[in-house]
TrEMBL record:
Domain notes for this protein: Has 3 domains, the large (RuvB-L) and small ATPase (RuvB-S) domains and the C-terminal head (RuvB-H) domain. The head domain binds DNA, while the ATPase domains jointly bind ATP, ADP or are empty depending on the state of the subunit in the translocation cycle. During a single DNA translocation step the structure of each domain remains the same, but their relative positions change.
Keyword terms: ATP-binding, Cytoplasm, DNA damage, DNA recombination, DNA repair, DNA-binding, Helicase, Hydrolase, Nucleotide-binding
Subunit structure: Homohexamer. Forms an RuvA(8)-RuvB(12)-Holliday junction (HJ) complex. HJ DNA is sandwiched between 2 RuvA tetramers; dsDNA enters through RuvA and exits via RuvB. An RuvB hexamer assembles on each DNA strand where it exits the tetramer. Each RuvB hexamer is contacted by two RuvA subunits (via domain III) on 2 adjacent RuvB subunits; this complex drives branch migration. In the full resolvosome a probable DNA-RuvA(4)-RuvB(12)-RuvC(2) complex forms which resolves the HJ.
Organism name: Cryobacterium luteum
GO function terms (MF aspect): ATP binding; four-way junction DNA binding; four-way junction helicase activity; hydrolase activity
Protein name: Holliday junction branch migration complex subunit RuvB
Localization in the cell: Cytoplasm
One Gene Ontology biological process: DNA repair
Binding-site positions, DNA: 325, 330
Gene label: ruvB
Primary location: cytoplasm
Main function: The RuvA-RuvB-RuvC complex processes Holliday junction (HJ) DNA during genetic recombination and DNA repair, while the RuvA-RuvB complex plays an important role in the rescue of blocked DNA replication forks via replication fork reversal (RFR). RuvA specifically binds to HJ cruciform DNA, conferring on it an open structure. The RuvB hexamer acts as an ATP-dependent pump, pulling dsDNA into and through the RuvAB complex. RuvB forms 2 homohexamers on either side of HJ DNA bound by 1 or 2 RuvA tetramers; 4 subunits per hexamer contact DNA at a time.
Domain AAA+ ATPase: 67-200
SUPFAM superfamilies in alphabetical order: P-loop containing nucleoside triphosphate hydrolases (SSF52540), Winged helix' DNA-binding domain (SSF46785)
Length: 359
């Protein structure tokens, strides 16, 4: 993939879903999201510290006429990891190659990609923690020495043949950096931890998106959407599209009334909870008496995969103080009981809450 691809992110967008309500997804969402991607750090809203760090890293590499150090981008889905990888390529006028951890299940898969890189190319591997272990081990030498060893032959007669690689920059993205082995994590020259967005930053994201799609919308409507998108720009842009569609179909303005009506239609409440969020919390509160309840039991109860509950639902519920993860399981807080209009058990305590750990 060339610089043109980096400048036209719509062509290389990949599927990822934070909104657990499937009615908020469509095939054209991908092109819509891609069209809104900023193409430079100057256009990128939010993540001020990370932007400054990346700008320094990229500028220094350009001044020294070398490839930038390998970069690891960690954080929840939808905060801009893919966009930042594209910007790394675009700002340095470098070609971009995109792949994903699940697509690299054998060392040979990775060898084929690495051996075809051109000098200075940026290789982006999304969900890098899901890459096969044999491929991870091949990356160690590739990242340090731009070389891999290829096994030729079989059995006792097999020999290792070194293959030199073109200098490249690896940009890895992960939602679960703790799953990366230390030898791989330590080989990244720079690690950025992306944070959830503040509402004022999301209003900027939404204002930019509304301008790009030609949608007149009032400031109070933008603020209302910003308060419901879970601190996540990708969700903000999708909710904006739902509001635009509602205003278009009903022949009205994209005002705060349209925001309320559209998001009520799509089961997104005033604080950003969607259908699955509410179902998870209500099951914990009513069926399990507030918990503790194990992840697998909870996932079966709502008819979802445990990974979906853990990676999509729980981070937001924990962040807003509705859920605590303890060694014994998931426990609802007093704030959750209050929000859902239920009386909390007398003397509510959260076992093990002093040490929150992922189960």
């Amino acid at each position: 993939m060339t610089r043109d691809a980096a400048a036209n992110p719509a062509a290389v967008e990949h599927p990822a879903a934070e909104l657990s309500n499937p009615s908020l997804e469509s095939e054209s969402e991908l092109a819509f999201e891609g069209a809104l991607r900023p193409a430079s750090l100057a256009e990128f809203v939010g993540q001020k510290k990370v932007r400054g760090q990346l700008q320094l890293l990229l500028t220094a590499a350009t001044m020294q006429n070398r490839t930038p150090d390998h970069i690891l981008l960690a954080g929840p889905p939808g905060l801009g990891k893919t966009t930042l990888a594209m910007i790394v390529a675009y700002e340095g006028n470098r070609p971009l190659r995109m792949s994903s951890g699940p697509a690299i299940q054998h060392a040979g898969d990775l060898a084929a990609v690495l051996s075809s890189l051109v000098p200075g190319e940026v290789l982006f591997i999304d969900e890098i923690h899901r890459m096969a272990r044999s491929a991870e081990e091949m990356l160690y030498l590739a990242m340090e020495d731009f070389r891999i060893d290829i096994m030729v032959g079989k059995g006792a007669g097999a020999t290792s043949v070194p293959l030199d690689l073109a200098p490249f920059t690896l940009v890895g993205a992960t939602t679960r950096s703790g799953l990366l082995p230390n030898p791989l994590r330590d080989r990244f020259g720079f690690t950025a931890h992306l944070e959830f967005y503040a509402e004022n930053e999301l209003e900027q994201v939404l204002g930019r998106a509304a301008q790009l799609i030609g949608l007149p919308i009032k400031a109070d409507a933008l603020a209302e959407i910003a308060g419901r998108c879970r601190g996540t720009p990708r969700i903000a842009n999708r909710l904006l599209r739902r509001v635009r569609d509602y205003a278009l179909v009903h022949g009205g303005a994209a005002d705060i009334a349209a925001v309320h009506a559209a998001l009520e239609l799509y089961d997104v409440d005033a604080i950003g909870l969607d259908r699955l969020d509410r179902e998870v919390m209500k099951i914990i509160l009513t069926r399990f008496g507030g918990g503790p309840v194990g992840l697998n039991t909870l996932a079966v109860s709502v008819g979802e995969e445990s990974e979906t509950v853990e990676a999509v639902v729980e981070p937001f519920l924990v962040r807003i103080g509705f859920l605590t993860r303890t060694p014994r399981g998931r426990v609802a807080t007093s704030a959750a009981w209050q929000h859902f209009g239920l009386a909390s058990p007398p003397g509510l305590t959260i076992p093990g809450s002093a040490t929150l750990i992922d189960l």
